[in-house]
Structures are given as structure tokens and as C-alpha cells.
Amino acid sequence: MGYLDQIHKKGKWEKLFSKRDQKINAKKSRVRARVEYIFGSITDEQGGGHFKIIGFARNELKIGMMNVVYNMRYLVTLHRINPCSN
What we know:
The chain is built from 2 helices and no strands. By secondary structure, it is mostly helical. The longest helix is centred in the middle third of the chain and has 28 residues, at 19-46. The model has no long low-confidence stretch (mean pLDDT 84).
């Protein structure tokens, strides 16, 4: 159906990973680390852990606005790091 397995392989202390398995886990970790940072930021800094809103549309709007705020904060950070870029 076109789905890819995104679950890490688990190592055992008595058997080392092959180089192939290490490469596969490293590739998955790059994506996971970036996504988890964003969710952690939204949860910790914006209080996005729980919502006391009734209705799918209102929750969708709140989550969307949290994403907009995160993106704006990230843009400010990028401009602080490299102020010469437009």
C-alpha cells in the first residue's frame, strides 16, 4: 500500500547491530529528532498538552494557531542567527 516502516530496530546487548541497521536507524532518527523538537516546544512552551475545547473544528483551529506561532518564533530565531538574509 506504499507505507514505509518507521520503527527503529532494537539492539540487544549480546548481538551488535549490522552497519545496515545502524544506517537505517540513523536515517529515521534525523526525521524523528526534528519532529519531536517541534512537538516538545509546542507542548512545553505553549501549553499544548491538553485542550479544554469541545468540537473538532475548534481544536483544529487551536492546533493550527499553535503551529503558526511556532513558525513565527522560528522565523525570528533564524533572523537573529543570520540577520543579513531576506
